[in-house]
Amino acid sequence: MNAASTSALAPVSGHATVRADLLGRMRGASGPYLASVAVCATIVAWALFAWGYQIVNGFGSTGVRRPVYWGFYIVNFVFWIGISHAGTLISAILRLTGAEWRKPVTRAAEAITVFCLMIGGLFPLIHISRPWFFYWMLPYPNERMLWPNFRSPLFWDLTAILTYLAGSVIYLYLPLIPDLAELANHSKGAKGRIYRALSLGWTGSDRQWQALERSMKLMAVVILAIAVSVHSVVAYDFSMSVMPTWHNTIFAPYFVVGAIFSGIAALVLVMAALRKLMGLEGYLREVHFVNLSKLLLLMSLIWGYFTFSEHLTTWYGNLPSEIRVFQFREHGLYGMLFWTMVACNFVVPFVLVGVSRLRSIPTIAVSSAAVLVGMWLERFLIVIPPLSNPPLAAAWGSYAPSWIELSITAGTFAAMVLLYLLFVKAFPIIAIWEYNDGVRAR
């Protein structure tokens, strides 16, 4: 590493100053902060009301109709589970490779994973209409001597999400332990006791550091395997069926690539918001955004290759059932959405990030926002057009979301912002111990 890059990645100042700076940002709540919490909480409350209305009045109150049995709920499920890869893959890879520039980035990424899994994991419950029977998907013996259908995608999703969520919580918690001890030393009353209990008696001894280092590296390896397998399982929900354009062997890697792509974009947006709203310019520097933008551009190119390959085989195969979906999606009712997706996921990042003269923190953030829009549209176009155009012509139909689905969708985005607002006031969003010169490099 040359002198310039070393200077760009160097700690802002001494550990004591960094500690006081980051802990100070957790104290107090400004007017805009409280207003943001209130707005997000109101939207989430409205979404919960809409869900309650759906439960009371039945699933028929939504826009889901024959033949489109999967609507916004499954679109959002795939979208949020995809974004959750931001923390595990990015943080774990950077930690295992020892990239020095990862220090102010990893915790923000790991928090995204946990929150997205919490949100995305709700959609199978919302979609089954009667969420109080969720335990039917669990593999347990019961008085009816019945077991869940192990060939059901719902069972696959439940197992994958619970495993991923448990691993992600552990992966977020382990690097928090030294900072929880710091918080316990600087907090009084009940808050101090809670932090002290969560720190698990951390004293910073060599034995504890060695154990923590081994645990973090082990979890980084485990979580990488889980992350890839989870989104592969989500892809199998589609590719194991015989629906036109779904029965495709490329879906598992295609979904994993899309997950990493959207996860990087989400991380960049979160970092840009934290940098601006919390005054973290001294920590989240341009070099961090530039490095992530290079990953974003790489994933954009890979996504473009996979998308081209998928549509090329459909077009060349020219099967009547698949070519109808192809034309319906690329040139018909959803043609505008398809080309908007291509522009957001490929053209915008290629121009704003690929051209070095245009690359800056604002343009990287704009590219990331465009990618998130494009990836949501991609999930929508994967789910809805094939279901609207099944092989049997007599079963063709259409789909339009109801106010319930729109409300719950808006509530999930508000919930993501709300969880992050609460998290940054409860825990340091940047690992304080990473800036301790006395701690050996990790």
Brief write-up:
The protein has one domain (about 1-240, about 255-290, about 400-440). About 70% of the residues lie in helices and about 0% in strands. The chain has helices at about 5-10, 15-25, 30-55, 70-85, 85-95, 105-120, 120-125, 155-185, 190-200, 205-240, 250-275, 285-315, 320-330, 335-350, 360-390, 405-425.
Low-pLDDT runs of 5+ residues are: 1-11, 437-442
Helical content, roughly? 55-70%
| Largest β sheet strand count, sense and barrel closure | none
Helix and strand composition category: mainly alpha
* Total of DSSP H or I helical runs spanning 4+ residues: 16
What is the 3D shape? globular
The N- to C-terminal Cα distance equals 17 Å
Radius of gyration: 23 Å
Mean pLDDT equals 83
Number of domains: 1
- What string, H for helix and E for strand, traces the elements in order? HHHHHHHHHHHHHHHH
Number of strands: 0
Strand content: under 5%
How does this model look, in words?
- By secondary structure, the chain is mostly helical.
- The chain has one domain.
- It contains 16 helices and no strands.
- It is globular, with a radius of gyration of 23 Å.
- Residues 1-11 and 437-442 have low confidence and may be disordered.
Please write out the topology.
Elements: H1 3-9, H2 15-24, H3 31-57, H4 72-83, H5 85-97, H6 106-120, H7 122-127, H8 153-185, H9 189-198, H10 206-239, H11 251-277, H12 286-317, H13 320-330, H14 335-352, H15 361-388, H16 403-426
Observed structural traits:
single chain, 442 residues, mainly alpha, 0% strand, globular, disordered N terminus, disordered C terminus
